[in-house]
Design brief:
The complex is a heterodimer of chains A (421) and B (376).
Chain A: H1 9-29, E1 34-37, H2 44-48, E2 52-54, H3 56-65, H4 69-78, H5 87-105, H6 110-113, E3 125-129, H7 135-147, E4 151-154, H8 166-187, H9 193-215, H10 227-238, H11 243-262, E5 273-278, H12 286-295, E6 298-303, H13 321-328, H14 336-349, E7 354-360, H15 370-381, E8 385-390, H16 400-420
Parallel strand pairs in A: 1-2, 1-3, 3-4, 5-6, 5-7, 7-8
Helix pairs in contact in A: 1-10, 1-11, 3-5, 4-5, 5-7, 8-13, 9-11, 10-11, 12-16, 14-15
Chain B: H1 3-16, H2 18-29, E1 33-36, H3 43-49, E2 52-55, H4 77-88, E3 96-100, H5 104-109, E4 121-124, H6 133-154, H7 160-186, H8 193-202, H9 208-223, E5 233-239, H10 245-253, E6 256-263, H11 281-291, H12 305-316, E7 320-326, H13 330-346, E8 350-355, H14 363-375
Parallel strand pairs in B: 1-2, 1-3, 3-4, 5-6, 5-7, 7-8
């Protein structure tokens, strides 16, 4: 009997998160390669090559959630990183600098000893993809330069016109083949195309069950508390090409389906209004952002952010154009009209009454079109919205009082609209 | 007024009055202008239509008010100004706007033009995996689409012959400007920091052949003079841009000669040419992007910018590098820690000053530059 058989989804989540980090530590100890990867960079190539993967954005979010961001941000500031740079990036550069110092001196700096950060090893290579921002190009350039290691780039050009044109898919697919060649050189062995197919299939199974979970929010009342997607996200990021994600997501989706059948809903009988969350989570204040809405009976039943990993493609497509399309169609990598369409569909499916926009100090791409997006959407479906100032990992930017006031205002508007219907 | 002063005065006039430059061009040719958003665009294509390419690099000292509705305070200073000017209708007369999206801010801005010509914004994406032939192919297709849109909006067919002619004119202008950079370094007594910037800035609002002719004349006049020893200090500047004139006047006041630059608004625009070759013009223009280097928005996993700047310091015997950091420009801010470390390792003195286009008081910059000069 396997160790995880019969384990509840929540336990599986913790188990596999730790296991993924342990895999990387074990690989390092055996002298095998470890890769640091951007969160929506294709994982399939490195996993096919048996390279252990670490995801700095998830790692940084974890540090933020465990209230350890400030120390790492301070290290980055001392190295010359401006506070304007993305806080995920700064936390990670701070952490990397600590690991580097430990590797050079043989002694862990005190800030690292005292950090709640999950212990992960330094990378031997990095892979990045700009489908969620060009900051990931700059950040990974710096990792490669400071550690003097190879950097694999998958450039997915901004889709100013939709649908995705064939010439863009061809360019991305060529880069996939180039990445494979780079990996063959780095690993000193040929790419295993048979295993690659298995890894693609595995990835699709993980994505399938991930989508099953998100799909549960369409029911009213909802068996899914949308904030749980933020918790489970760690595995769709870090383990989607392993069975860790599939096992966990299947268990969670099954639990939710059973709850739905049994009439057990996320907020029991207290669901009054349903909202969309637009933007990255505020990791250091995740509990507060959730409880504030919950206390008002507002449940999150739609968000495009975890949907970034809805990476459905045809695993049999040897041209890799289908896979290229999946990795480039991320809504923030597309024109405003497409972004609006994506959010409108999420709102319709989730039977949503209003939207909370996170004006994220760290994420220009997920902030600078908020005004236009919100106004167009309101013009189409008439649903109210509010915006609050926050940051994904820098705890100092978020004001609990401002957030509470804005959420209260939204809930009042949503309730008034429902009462008028 | 000497010949040198007369030419500089003419270029300064253009640099300070882009609207007049555009109106004069319209009156003279009957054709309009096309806006060119930073940082890189296939401007040669616009030139080939007979329209005047007009650089859009913000404004100085304009208080941000209308743009606040559309952009949070942490958007870069230059785009705040551009947005404010859009809201005021300053760009409404442009027949089209060419918009590249090499950073996250520009991606967003490309989707929210507020001017009357919002339906004439031509967006294209530079590929970032620049070493690959596939990137060139991708960019050729993007350029084909840019060309088709320009033709549609302007009602002008862009022939290969016209494009080749424009490429030659641009290559000559870039070569002449590279020579000008050296001349300005040799003659800081004649070409001040303010003058130097005006020569660069004017090329954004003039036909390049006219600009080339004036700069060639300027170079000939200056080079006829004897080179004098410079009793001030020499610096290389890097960043997006170094404005306004009040800041450059501080450089002149403290005898800080700008002997080379890596400014996006200045030398990065003239760094690489469109090479000759058997291939078509669009392909060769795409190749120029592949050959670009040392820029924060042109991905470089080898991170060569610091080494390039260190070489510039060596070649020009500069005393220091001054970093003109555009406020809230994260691509530039990400480059800084790496080249800063490299400068420190090589013992290259350096100072970072912040460029904020909204600011109208420069006492802080003055104090910082003054103490830095004393240290050199």
């Amino acid at each position: 009997m396997s160790l995880t058989q019969g384990m509840a989804a929540k336990k599986l989540l913790g188990y596999y998160q730790n296991k993924a980090d342990q895999d990387a530590r074990d690989a390092k100890a055996r002298g095998e390669l470890v890769c640091w990867s951007a969160s929506v960079a294709p994982s399939e190539f490195c996993v096919t090559m048996g390279i252990a993967m670490i995801y700095p954005e998830t790692h940084a979010a974890g540090i933020g959630a465990r209230k350890g961001a400030i120390d790492m941000l301070d290290v980055a500031t001392r190295k010359g990183y401006n506070i304007d740079c993305c806080s995920y990036g700064r936390v990670n550069m701070g952490y990397m600098e600590c690991l580097k110092e430990a590797a050079i001196t043989g002694r862990k700096p005190e800030v690292l000893v005292n950090s709640p950060a999950a212990d992960v090893p330094l990378p031997d290579l990095v892979i990045t993809c700009n489908n969620i921002c060009n900051t990931l190009l700059k950040w990974y350039e710096n990792l490669a330069a400071e550690l003097d290691i190879p950097c694999i780039v998958i450039d997915v050009p901004f889709n100013h016109t939709m649908p995705i044109p064939e010439y863009a898919k061809a360019y991305i697919a060529d880069q996939f083949r180039n990445a494979i060649s780079q990996l063959e050189v780095i690993c000193g062995r040929p790419f295993d195309w048979k295993k690659f197919k298995e890894v693609k299939d595995q990835t699709q199974r993980s994505v399938y069950h991930w989508n099953r979970i998100a799909d549960m929010a369409k029911y009213k009342p909802s068996p899914l508390n949308g904030f749980d997607l933020f918790n489970y996200m760690a595995l769709i990021v870090a383990c989607r090409s392993l069975d860790y994600a599939e096992i966990t997501f299947k268990a969670f989706a099954d639990e939710l389906e059973a709850n739905l059948k049994a009439g057990v809903y996320a907020f029991k009988g207290a669901e009054k209004t349903r909202f969309q969350w637009e933007g990255i989570a505020v990791w250091p204040h995740l509990g507060h952002t959730f409880k504030t809405t919950k206390n008002l009976g507002a449940i999150m039943t739609g968000t495009a952010y975890p949907d970034l990993w809805n990476l459905e493609y045809d695993a049999n497509d040897e041209s890799l154009h289908s896979m290229a399309e999946a990795y480039t169609k991320i809504y923030i990598n597309t024109c405003l009209s497409n972004k609006v369409d994506v959010l409108l569909k999420i709102m319709e499916k989730g039977q949503i009454d209003g939207t909370i926009y996170h004006l994220n100090r760290s994420c220009k791409l997920m902030s600078f079109l908020n005004v236009e997006t919100a106004e167009i959407i309101k013009g189409v479906n008439g649903k109210p919205y509010v915006s609050f100032d926050g940051d994904q990992t820098d705890p100092n930017v978020f004001s609990p009082a401002q957030y509470e006031t804005r959420v209260q205002a939204l809930v009042e508007m949503m309730e008034a609209n429902l009462a008028a219907e | 007024m000497s010949k040198v002063e007369a030419i500089l005065s003419q270029l300064k006039e253009v640099a300070a009055n882009p609207k007049k430059a555009m109106d004069d061009y319209k009156a003279e040719t009957g054709k309009g202008a096309v806006g060119i958003m930073p940082i890189y665009a296939p401007e040669e294509m616009v030139h080939a239509t007979g329209y005047l390419p007009m650089g859009i690099w913000g404004a100085q000292g304009k208080q941000i008010s209308k743009a606040r509705t559309y952009l949070p305070a942490f958007a870069c200073s230059i785009m705040q100004q551009v947005m404010e000017l859009q809201c005021e209708g300053a760009y409404d007369e442009l027949a089209a706007v060419l918009f590249s999206v090499p950073c996250d801010t520009l991606k967003c801005l490309s989707q929210k033009w507020k001017g009357a010509n919002a339906d004439k914004v031509i967006v294209f994406t530079h590929p970032q995996n620049r070493g690959l032939e596939a990137a060139n192919k991708f960019l050729v297709t993007e350029y084909e689409l840019v060309k088709a849109q320009l033709e549609a909006y302007l009602g002008v067919k862009i022939t290969n012959a016209a494009l080749e002619n424009s490429i030659a004119i641009y290559n000559e202008n870039r070569a002449v400007m590279r020579e000008f950079v050296k001349v300005a370094a040799d003659y800081p007594q004649v070409i001040s920091a303010v003058d130097r910037h005006a020569v660069f800035k004017a090329r954004q609002f003039m036909l390049k052949e006219k600009h080339t002719a004036l700069v060639k004349e300027l170079i000939a006049e200056v080079k006829a003079m004897p080179v004098q020893p410079w009793d001030g200090k020499k610096v290389v500047v890097t960043g997006i841009m170094l404005e306004p004139n009040q800041v450059l006047e501080i450089f002149d006041e403290f005898k800080l000669a700008i002997v080379d630059d890596d400014l996006a608004q200045e030398s990065r625009q003239i760094r690489v040419d469109v090479l000759d070759g058997e291939e078509g013009p669009l392909y060769r223009m795409a190749k120029a992007w592949q050959q670009m280097y040392g820029c924060s928005v042109a991905t470089d996993t080898k991170k060569g910018r610091g080494k390039m700047l260190i070489n510039k310091v060596a070649q020009t015997e500069a005393d220091a590098v001054i970093v003109a950091m555009m406020k809230f420009c994260d691509p530039e801010e990400w480059d800084y820690p790496v080249y800063y470390r490299e400068f420190e390792e090589k013992g290259i003195k350096n100072l970072m000053i912040e460029v904020d286009q909204e600011v109208t008081s420069f006492e802080q910059v003055k104090t910082r530059l003054q103490s830095f000069v004393e240290m050199l």
